[in-house]
Amino acid sequence: MRGLKEVVKLEFPGARFQVCVLHAVRDSLRIRRNKERDRIAEGLKGIYKAVSRKEARQGLMKFKKRWGRIYPELVKKWEENFNELTTFMKYPEGVRRFIYTTNQLERLMKGYFDEG
Q1: Domain range spanning residue 42?
Q2: Mind telling me which residue stretches traverse the membrane in this protein (predicted)?
């Protein structure tokens, strides 16, 4: 069975995929020790708040150096999903905030289905 991404690429070959950064961050913090959450969150900002993919990659390397031995699975997730976590950086800064998270889309759909 094909996944959604593969099916979309068949129908829309030029489509770009963006993993919701907010959900990725929340997922990354959910299973961490309370005393480390703030420092991990701050390290992740070095990735998704970067102004370019190059800077984001540097942020990821810094994050890996700091947390890779303690949380290798966390770092691996961000490495494996880096391209889809930073797709929004290919767009002008003015629209990035609408692309990097699905919250606005979720809010729209919730309102649509709650009213209907």
Answers
A1: 4-115
A2: none
Rounded to two decimals, the pTM is 0.81
Q: Which two tokens stand for residue 15?
A: 């489509």
Give CA–CA dist 107/23, Å, rounded.
14
Return the closest-CA partner of residue 24 out of 94, 76, 66.
76
User: Is-contact 18 95, C-beta < 8 A?
Assistant: no
pLDDT digits (tens, 9 = 90+) for 46-67: 999 999 999 999 999 999 999 9
Taking residue 59's Cβ as centre, other Cβ atoms within 10 Å add up to 20
DSSP state for residue 89 in the 8-state scheme: G
- Given a contact cutoff of 8 angstroms between Cβ atoms, the answer to whether 56 and 47 are in contact is yes
Amino acid letter at 16?
R
